[in-house]
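Q&A log
Question type: sequence-to-structure
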Amino acid sequence: MSWIGAAVLGATALAGVAAPPAQAATAVSVTVNATAGLGTIPSGAIGLNTAVYDGYMNDAPIPGLLKAAGINALRYPGGSYSDIYNWQTNVAQGGYDAPNTAFSNFMSTAQAAGTSPIITVNYGTGTPALAAAWVQNANVTNHYNIQYWEVGNEVYGNGTYGANWEADSHCTTSASGGPVTIGNEPNQTYNCGPSTYATGVLNYISAMKAVSSNIHVCAILTTPGFWPDNVTNPTTSPQPWNQTVLKALGSKTDCVIVHYYPGGSNAAGMLTDPTDISGIVSTLHSQIQQYAGVNPANVPILVTETNSTIDTDTQPAALFGADMYMSWLENGVVNVDWWDEHNGPGTNTPAVVAGVQDYGDYGIFSNGANNSGVTEPAVETPFAPYYAIELLTKLGAPGDTMVNTTSGNALVKVHAVRRAGGSLSVLIENEDPSNSYTANLALNGFTPSGSPTLYTYANGGSSISSTTQSSASSVTVAPYSLTVIQIPGSGGTGATAPGAPGQPTVSNLSSSTSGTNTGTGTLSWTASAAGTYPVANYQVYQLGSGGSSTLVASPTGTTLNLSGLTIGASYTYNVVAVDTHGNPSLPSPPVTFTVPPPANSTCAVHYAISSSWPGGFGGNITLTNKGTSAINNWTLTFAWPAAGEAVQSGWNGTWTQSGQNVTVTAASWNSTIAAGGGTVSVGFNGTDTGLDPAPTAFFINGTVCANN
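Response status: OK
Response body:
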């Protein structure tokens, strides 16, 4: 993100909030499926941005405040400043560096707070050698063991797509190579598009990993569904940013970075945005697999900037923050970093939100500044998002297992975690500003025992309150509140259950065009450690939409042969160990895979997005005949993965769509595809609702085709 504000002084007190009048709570059904694991909470998952222009970055109270909130990652040196900052001199070209914000000062705070640093090296005005020297200083000289290093900030904001908030000295003012005055060019569109960036990333990877081979060097991608994702520029970006960068990196794709500022016109709309996260991650995985040609399960995804953008200091941001963090982590992202530690009040007029003063401040702590006659609280006063992050420490900790949930009301968001000791914690968010709800809990695969503890952050609160109740069957949540209910118990009896199996892997995944066009594979996992009793068998669950899980087999060993898989379909499985007395373990992390088309098919299809714009995109599809006989009167069929994708118009064939299924029939002049490598190309313009992942399987005259 571009620089939003610098720290200034001032003080006041946070306004109190009157409790809403009591009213009857509406019942909501909530189901927690304790056998449907969504993976473990990573270490360094809950992150926060810091910035070298923030004079309060390393204040004495900061380590304690961060530790109390469970913040375990810090990103440095701060957004777009990363691309003008020289870590050796602590100078940002054309910017402001506050005192005591050098790398050594930052590391003192990071270590005191027990956090994992994430470093953004200078791509815009730096060099691979400068970045490698930083790795040398951090990991070799000082033994900080920093794992994640990202190459540049929002590099696509360098003018390639007509907006230039990000400094990039690779850009020139013309095709002939005139130098750019950094940050002052209206359109830095020459010699600095995604191909140039990808070449730079490869150079950075080489230089930095020569110093420390075990680090992750991360490439910047556009966030699927958010500008400038899939936008093209005929001069320097004829193919979309992600496609270009991932193809160039190929097998060296080490990890990827996206930013997430969903925006929206009001709080209610913004609070629905986290439902898009699963689609964003799915699209990223698809792009990594399609363009880089590597297994996306081996490529960490980090969200190194995010914020609500609306009502940033009050309860809507707190509700958004907790739901957003958990939604990313449940979909396998390894780190999410809130913007920002301190930021200062925004440019908009301050407003009162649900009875509480909002300052438009993107920080989680006040810096005491004044805007439009409204003064923030004293420096280091936490805003509402801070308490939402703190509440997540009551939900789970690194290593705990996230499990699937469903809610009967879209205004009541739910997330759940099986704790290492066997208990269950459930986060219940009431995003309705006016009405209370009673969540009636159905706990599948979990047996409560003892009195639950409730932790609540209420609208306008300055702390998290706690209480106990006698039953785990229901929880009543007030308007605009976040509650975690910690439920003692286990998945079985009081005996020590087996350890969770290791994450399954899929091998020998193949498909065939013969017979029923189906695929096969082998699911394998690491054996569980025995608890009080030996492991008797494993329960393999197929996870579906809406939090469902279906038991498909109970093998005694650690492998399962899969058959009858649909080509192009995605499947998710996890495994639970059961001992000889029926006690289940925590579920393993899930594995998700897509059944590939057969490589030896007599036809092949190449699909590529050629252009994109808000609400739409264009693409080209090439059909190839690999067989020995001509294909006559061809018909191409495929299905869109996202419900919002649709064909608007097409050429070189007759295009029709029913639901998500698309059919293209040949034109009279291209109805034959010659044998032995003959091709036909078709194209289309389509509409979307932000996400446009590629189809996973194509059929010509009913034969499933290979990817080309």
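Response note: The chain has a mean pLDDT of 90.
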